[in-house]
């Protein structure tokens, strides 16, 4: 009886550890409806302190709170390498840049903790492959930040360029630009679970100007939990926390207690 209980408990413990490890191994996705937030206009409108804090929050959230390396795979002004690079490097992160589409592939992505992309990353002939690469990268443990609303292509094409990838993680981008511009109060977003505190803590406002609104949608084949901020201005998605069923926890506790009791009796 004791041996049977021990084996069952050990099996449950193994499954729990495996589940937690699987969840932790998968990456995260963050989407901005518009590219102006981190550029010089965003800095002057919302304040350098807010943009710096947001950039560091984002890097921390994407990498799971650890220092890591970031690839900015874009030639668009929405990812100003001087400002972002300074915020990242002083926050303990390393970064590299590429605006060459051949440098935006799964083979390249896997060398980084997180990748920043936008429509300028895309060559029309390789769009399907890029979306597949981004999906594989996230499922393999990397994290992705997508800037939309760039105007590099039509609004509908820009949404389509990322919606297959985003839909796998429960997010969709609108096909038309939203006409929303200005400074947005983000001070209450930090209290919005599950991701608000990590992304918007210490950030009181951010700027955007006419992007692709975001919503929950898509097949969400990855089984992620997605969250929308600011009526579609930002979206975040990550693997749902693995919470064992109460009956599973009870079985584990009872089993381990029985094993411990048996060991004490043998010593006695």
UniProtKB/TrEMBL annotation:
Identification of the protein by name: Ice-binding protein C-terminal domain-containing protein
Signal sequence extent: 1-25
Top-rank lineage group of the source organism: Bacteria
Keyword Signal: yes
Keywords: Signal
UniProt key word Protein transport: no
Occurrences of domain Ice-binding protein C-terminal (ranges): 243-266
Residues annotated as transmembrane: none
